[in-house]
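Moderator note: this is an archived Q&A kept for reference. The question asked for a predicted structure of one protein chain; the sequence and the answer are reproduced below.
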Amino acid sequence: MNRLFAVTLLSLMMLASLALTAQTTVFKFNQDGEFASIDQSSDPSSSFSLSVSRNSSNGPNTAATASISFTASSLSADFSTFTFTQIVGTIPAAAFTGVNTQNLTLSLDVSQLDPTTSLSQTCTVDLNLLTVTCGAGPTGTIQLNFQENGAQRTRVLALGEEITVGNFTTRIHQRSDNSTANVSGTIFGTAVSASNATVGVNHNSSLEYVRNQ
């Protein structure tokens, strides 16, 4: 187990144990259509993951939407603090564009997030005092362009998965056609460039987040 993952696990467990008020937040997205994702670690002490997908329509008179999941974490150089950011929720359909998986673009100003259908927070864990301080998530934009490169293609026929870390549970039910992709752009002003991103098409998939605190 690497140091960053171990500290991530410890921090989320602490966050759960320090919660003072019982409260459950649930976000569920029915995903059908194009999606894109990237996981990247710039060094042993920091990493991020991002996934964006079109949601299935609930009817002819319902506005189309997309959904995003973004997490980032970093460990200070002296190992005294651990900081992580979570952004999960519905975003406007216009923020995720492209007519097929060959070229998909995410252009999101986080001020577009609706607090009733999304969560955005940044928390800092003091590893010496064993305290957790949380506040509003980052401000700014995420600008990413995904271009399918076809280096590897995968079909997910039936995936069912539940992952619980501390007070945060993710439930995934997925059927999809996937391909590797190049990605470039910025996340809150930091440049991103990689050839191991993923693009694809979800087929009647679902993604559910349950946060207890």
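Archived answer notes: Confidence is low (pLDDT under 50) at residues 16-22.
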